[in-house]
Every structure is written in structure tokens, then in C-alpha cells.
Amino acid sequence: MVIFPLNAELFALEARNTSVTIVMAVSNIGNFLVTKLAVNVESAIGTSGLYFIFSGICAVASVFTTIFLPETKGRSPQEMRELFQRRHRRIKTSNSRIDVME
Q1: Which domain holds residue 84?
Q2: Which of 26, 40, 79, 88 could anchor a disulfide with 75, C-beta 3.0 to 4.6 Å?
């Protein structure tokens, strides 16, 4: 799997422990769901239908990655942090605070 070697490089040092834990939990949940549901889906729609569904999920994930994630090749960790950081200005109302992205 690709996530294991990338975990060390993807996350900032101060967020690495929590981030890696979340990534591994989501990965294990996904693996469990695929393992648990694959047999039932295959018996209901057949092997080709099962692989068609899996390929559709992969296609959607590829389109999402291509459209929404910027290229980070050749950038330093500081440049990537600046790229992904969002600036917020806080607007205070009577009892709550609303975050607005600039």
C-alpha cells in the first residue's frame, strides 16, 4: 500500500502522530468494509459487477485527486504548509463566532 511510506512525508512534524493514527484507522475501516461487503455484493451482482463498482470508485477518486489536490513536487515542506494553510478572520456575533475563509 502506498499510504505506509507516504505517512512520514505527508504530515507536518507537530501533527504527524495524530494524522498517521487517523489515516491508519480509516485505512483499516476501508479494508474491513471491502472484505466484509465484497462477498455479498459479488453474490448479488456477479464478479464483473463488483469489479465495475470498484473501478468506478477508483475513477471518482482519481478525478477528485486531479481536480482538488495541487501539485507539490519540488516544493519544500514550508512551501507546502503555506499552500495548504487557510487564513481565517473571525466575525463575532452575539453568542457565537463564525469563521470566514478569505
Answers
A1: 3-101
A2: 79
